[in-house]
Amino acid sequence: MKKLYFTFLILISLIVISCGGKDDGGGGNVDPPDPINPPTSTTLVSPANNTECLDGENVEFRWNSSQYTDTYTINVKNLLTQSVISQSTTSTTITIQLEKGQPYSWYIVSSSNSSSDTAESEKWKFYLKGDQTSNYAPFPADLIKPTAEATVAPGSIEFEWSGSDVDTGDTLTYDLYLSTSNPPTTRIQSNITSTKVTQNISDLGVYYWKIITKDNSGSNSDSGVSKFTVAN
Predict the structure, then answer these.
(1) Which of 113, 114, 65 is nearest to 91 (CA)?
(2) The pLDDT of residue 17 is above 80
(3) Greatest Cα pair distance in the chain
(4) Which residues pair with 68 in a beta bridge?
(5) What percent of the chain is predicted at pLDDT more than 70?
(6) What domains are defined for the chain?
(7) Which of 132, 107, 105 is nearest to 221 (CA)?
(8) Structure pTM?
């Protein structure tokens, strides 16, 4: 009888051991956290790029939705005054009141509540219609090279920019201003027909440059100033 009793205890012990759960504090495998997807950049819809836009002051901006995005921040810059309007929304459209007869650029920054990363769209330009006019001034040039705050070696330095005009029949030419003072007042090349030139600079130091864009109707625009350093 005693032998049967001990056999029974052994069987019960084996059952308890086999049914016992894993120790959560042990070295068991832990599933990795789900990856966090950063937001993607949106594509702009309207106002269309390099166009004359609307009548009136209230401009509706529209863009497509982007993946993994919770909030869109629109940035609208007056290209003459350099003033910027920034507003955030969860929608893909927003209406902003702007001054008529002015050139603007705009772009969208996509952001997510789950990620610190952001994604920036392309930058588009448009003119908001003002009083009736037969010709619009060209858009201020976008300065490309040398990039702002860049350091370049002395010698033959390449200057590059982009220009555009809503008046598609206009012919654009450019004047390059460059000096060690801000704003630059020395015009070193004029009536340039391309958007890329080289200029020899041998003296070391900080330089400022800008582009004046001109059309064949006598209108012009100022790119604003960019800064770079010439150093060995």
Answers:
(1) 65
(2) no
(3) 118
(4) none
(5) 85
(6) 44-128 (2.60.40.10), 142-230 (2.60.40.1220)
(7) 105
(8) 0.75
